Amino acid sequence: MIPVSLLILALTRPPAPAPPLAIVHATVVPMDAERTLERYTILVQDGRIAWLGPDSSAEIPSEARVIDATAKWVLPGLADMHVHSGAGDFPAFVANGVTTIREMNGAGEHLELRNAVREGRVLGPSMIVTGPLIAGEEQRWRHAMARTPDDGRALVAEQARLGFDAVKIYDGLTRETYDAIVEASAAAGIQFVGHVPRGVGLERVLESGQRSIEHAGQIAHAVASTDSAALAEVGRRIARSGAWVTPTLASEEALSRRGTPWFAERLARPEVMLVDPGLVDWWRSLGEGMPETAAAERRRAYREGTAALVRALLDAGVPLLAGTDTPNPLMIPGFSLHEELAALVAAGLTPYEAIRGATAEAGRFADMEAEFGTIRVGARADLVLTDADPLADVSSLARPTAVVLRGEWLPRERLDGLLGEALAEVGAESR
């Protein structure tokens, strides 16, 4: 693993003033409602959207770089709202149109990266960073241990002091320690998000003001029923609480299919070469020796439980976020968000509803609606261009024609170049 300081050095480039960028003749999908704006111009200046309107009203500065977007659709940049990442993942995110990520188990290196991206020193997605997950029992990955209420209070105070954007609740916490974390988060003015600890229970999580619940499976385990009436009721309770849900359906589905030909086929896809070989070996090992009947049962449980729950959440009006839990099995940075959008559509969302979870809802969740998630004047100039209508088929968002990242124009050849550099880096590390 290359130290983050060296990755930042490798990716660092001094900010340079750029001429205005005018994207003309576009079909704009602003994501503020289910609508398109035909033959529109977007004017970008200093990394922001400076003007938006019909081509016929556009006044384009003579020094502007003009992009003809005839027969192109332009959307806000996408947000993956549940990742575990590093700087080495940034090329794959950007090449897939992911311009914002929410890092869900942050450390000091992620705060450093977040600031470097904000300052224009690193080419990568803007970051929302939670602190190290707070658990009540030992975990196999990085975590902060809170065995007592005093532990929980101290960890919240420390994470707030360091500048993390949220506190992440994890498994194994007692009710008393969870309540102390809730109280300390309110006192520190920091959001708390995360799991539904079994010792706490779903009802207490919904009462507490927890901002988001990660993984539909966490809710499914707490409900322990696939009865449609029970799922509808839990959907209504979550909607009343104001909590958001990040279903991570693609990750859940991949785990449900380990040991099947479907899983093996995805392990052979070219983008898997972007992943650390040791991690791929772990993915491959999960299904070894697994009877086909066991895989079929897991698939059935996923279909009847988790996916059905997401439909109930949608029907109840629970706001949903698109997140992948990369690098869980088969969840490749950037690429996996397109898998998640497809999984959300398969669960019953329309393409617009699924894409909204990766755009407008992400901005609204982060209390940054004016900053990202919709195409509007003053917003960060994070844009994705596609060759087909994403409101008809979310798969058109995969392999975008171009990406605009904080005002920087990145055509497809540049995006492919970023992927090539990332592939070479993985190869160098594995040697």
SSE topology:
Layout: H1 4-11, E1 21-28, E2 37-45, E3 48-54, E4 65-68, E5 73-76, E6 78-83, H2 90-95, E7 98-103, H3 108-118, E8 126-129, E9 134-135, E10 144-145, H4 149-162, E11 166-169, H5 175-188, E12 191-194, H6 202-208, E13 212-214, H7 216-223, H8 228-241, E14 244-246, H9 249-256, H10 261-267, H11 277-285, H12 292-316, H13 335-346, H14 351-356, H15 360-365, E15 383-386, E16 402-405, E17 408-411, H16 412-430
Parallel strand pairs: 1-4, 1-5, 6-7, 7-8, 9-10, 11-12, 13-14
Antiparallel strand pairs: 1-2, 2-3, 5-15, 15-16, 16-17
Which percent bin holds the helix content? Answer: 40-55%
The CATH homologous superfamily of the largest domain corresponds to: Metal-dependent hydrolases
* Major beta sheet summary: 8 strands, mixed
Question: Nearest-angstrom radius of gyration?
Answer: 21 Å
Distance between the termini: 12 Å
Low-confidence runs (pLDDT<50, min 5 residues)?
1-10
Q: How many strands in all?
A: 17
Q: Find the CATH topology of the largest domain.
A: TIM Barrel
**Average pLDDT taken over every residue:** 93
Number of helices: 16
CATH architecture of the largest domain: Alpha-Beta Barrel
The total tally of domains equals 2
CATH class of the largest domain, named Alpha Beta
Beta percentage is 15-25%
Shape: globular
Structural class: alpha/beta
